[in-house]
């Protein structure tokens, strides 16, 4: 990002976060320019620029609810862990939301990062790739750019004392799981045609974080078995429901926008 080129600071420092917010603001205007220049002219005979990027009202409610529900099924195990720990009670407290809306880190993780990353790497990049590749190839290629972008965190970790090998391993791990997530997000955009479907699941996944598998080992035997089973059941149900719950006709998405020859 722009502020990384200017200066490397602690990523959670308020000054750094504010600088990145400014960078994101400018990128929201720059990214669509590349899409507009690179997309086939005939595309705009059938669809507007905003619709091409996934901004439309038809099917919006479904695009928010169904992908989120699908992703919650995938996170059945981690959600059960939150229920077990009592963390879900926090979500019913108004002050929890009020305080978080004043927290720059929370705003970055739940609003600004999902907004900027989905807009750039999915809404603006995927339509360009769909001109050159088959849909599933584009879905596989698009997240690679998203995954590689996370290697810039290495610079900060090394600056603050982490050895290169450890920083590189962490970056590789981030690359793998962010690329896998990116494939899922790109697939949702392909199927639903809605930016909101990608934004909402990105915010949700950022909130949940990577499942804490070590915590599962600390549970008593009965709870450990139940939680472990929920991990597998959630994944199995997600696989079964992925296509049915993303049926394009539900979202008024005829998929014609990527079939321009």
In words, what does this structure look like?
This protein has about 260 residues and is mainly α. The chain has one domain (about 60-260). The chain is built from 14 helices and no strands. It has helices at about 1-5, 15-40, 50, 60-75, 75-85, 95-100, 105-125, 125-130, 135-150, 155-160, 165-190, 195-210, 215, 220-240. It is globular, with a radius of gyration of 20 Å. The relative contact order is 0.16. InterPro entries: Rce1, Rce1/LyrA-like_dom.
Largest sheet at a glance?
none
By secondary-structure content and strand pairing, the structural class works out as: mainly alpha
> Which consecutive residue ranges, at least 5 long each, have pLDDT under 50?
1-8, 257-261
Report, as a whole number of angstroms, the end-to-end distance: 34 Å
Could you say how many structural domains there are in total? 1
What percent of residues are in strands? under 5%
């Amino acid at each position: 990002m722009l502020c990384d080129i200017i200066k490397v600071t602690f990523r959670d420092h308020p000054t750094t976060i504010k600088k990145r917010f400014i960078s994101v603001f400018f990128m929201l205007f720059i990214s669509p320019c590349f899409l507009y220049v690179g997309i086939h002219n005939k595309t705009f005979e059938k669809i507007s620029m905003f619709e091409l990027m996934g901004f439309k009202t038809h099917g919006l409610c479904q695009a928010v609810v169904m992908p989120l529900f699908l992703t919650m099924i995938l996170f059945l195990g981690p959600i059960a862990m939150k229920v077990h720990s009592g963390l879900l009670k926090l979500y019913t407290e108004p002050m929890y939301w009020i305080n978080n809306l004043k927290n720059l880190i929370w705003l970055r993780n739940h609003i600004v990062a999902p907004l900027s990353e989905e807009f750039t790497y999915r809404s603006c990049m995927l339509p360009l790739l769909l001109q050159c590749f088959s849909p599933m190839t584009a879905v596989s290629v698009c997240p690679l750019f998203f995954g590689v972008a996370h290697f810039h965190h290495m610079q900060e970790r090394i600056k603050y004392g982490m050895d290169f090998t450890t920083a590189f391993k962490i970056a590789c791990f981030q690359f793998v799981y962010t690329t896998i997530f990116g494939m899922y997000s790109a697939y949702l955009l392909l199927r639903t045609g809605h930016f909101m479907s990608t934004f909402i699941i990105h915010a949700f996944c950022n909130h949940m974080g990577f499942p804490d598998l070590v915590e599962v080992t600390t549970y008593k035997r009965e709870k450990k078995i139940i939680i472990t089973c929920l991990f597998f059941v959630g994944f199995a149900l997600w696989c079964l429901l992925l296509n049915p719950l993303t049926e394009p006709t539900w979202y008024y998405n005829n998929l014609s926008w990527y079939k321009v020859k």
